[in-house]
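Self-study notes.
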Amino acid sequence: MSRPIDVVPYDPKWPEIFETLRRRLKAQLGDLAWRIEHVGSTAVPGLSAKPIVDLDVVIHSRDDLAEVITALRRLGYAHEGDGGIQGREMFTTPADAPAHHLYVCATGNRELARHLVFRDLLRADPMTARAYAALKADLAARFRSDRRGYSEAKTAFIEQALCSITNRAPEQ
C-alpha cells in the first residue's frame, strides 16, 4: 500500500535539497548531463506541494541513455522505464537520498518542455499558482490513497494552463 498523499506548505529547504541532489548527479554524470532542472511544485517558491523534489536530467541525445543508466546505477538508482511517457525515463530513489523523483529526458523532448513551461508559468503567475495549490489540496483530500487518481485529476488544469500560454498574443 502506498503512503497517503500529503500536500504541505512550501518548504524553503526544497531548493537546497534540489541543489544537493543536482551536485551529486552532476558529479556522477559529468558531461552526460547537459542540464539538471528542478521541476514540479517544489520548484515554485511559495507553492504548497507533496514534499518530493522532482528533477529532470537533460541529456544531449537518447544515444547517451545506456551510459546514463549505468552511471546512475552506481548512485543507487534503478531504471524503471518510461512509465508510459515516451522519451521520459524514470528512476527509483536510492534509500539514502531525500524524497525525490528523477527523470531523464533528451533535449528537445516534449515532456521536458511541458515541465519547464508549466514550472515557469507557476513562478511568474501568482494567480495560477494559487489556483493550482487550491486544486492540489482538494485533490489530496479526495484521492488520499490514490496517487494515480490524484495525478490524473490534475491533468485538466495543467493542460488548460499550458494551452493558455500557447494562445496568448505576443507582447507588443
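Second protein, same conventions, sequence then structure:
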Amino acid sequence: MQPSPFERPTDKYDERLFSIDEQICEMLKKRKDISNNYSGFPPKEVIANWAEKYDLYEEYLSSLFGSVRLVDYFKPRVDPIGFRKHIPVLKSVEINDRFYSVMFIRQYENASVLRLNVDWDGTDELPMDIHSQRNVFELLLKGDYDCRADGRKGSIGTDAYKFIVTPPLPDDVSELELVFREYNDTFREKPTGLEVVLQLE
C-alpha cells in the first residue's frame, strides 16, 4: 500500500532551519547505516530522560522514533511488469513438522516473484485460528538484491509468503541460495532462530 500524498506547507518554512534540518537528515542516515535498518525503539525510561533533558514531550519523541522505524514502508515500490516466464524450483525442507517449499520463480522484466509455502497438519486447528497472529519471514539473498515481503495468505494448515525481488534474478538460478529468516514481530526485530535454507541446483 502506497503512503497517501501529503501537501507540505513549504510557504511557511523558516529558512533559518535549513542547516538544522540538514543535520537531522545526516543523523538519520548515520542511524540507518549503524543499525543496518533494524533500529529498534529506545527504552521508555530513556525517552523520558531525553524529554526532560531537552524540554520535549514524551509522546512527541515516541511518535518520532515510531516514524523512524517505518523507513522501509516509504521505500519506493517496484510493481512487477512484463511477465516473461516461470522458472521451476521445486525445493523443499521439513523442519519441526512444518514443510517449507518454493515451487517456482516468476520472472518479469523488472523483478522476480516467489512464494515460500509453509504446510503442516492443521487437523486440530479451528477456523478462527487462521486470523491469529502468524510469524513473518524475510528473504535474504547474496548480492545486491532488494527483497520485499509482499503479504501472506493462509488457511488451515497452510501459509504462503510472497516476495518481490529487484533487480530480477538471473534465469539460471543453479547457484542461488534462498534463506528465509523467521521473526515473531512485524518490524523483524525479534528473530525466532529459525532459518529455512533452500539451495537451488
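Instructor comment on the second fold: The longest strand covers residues 83-95.
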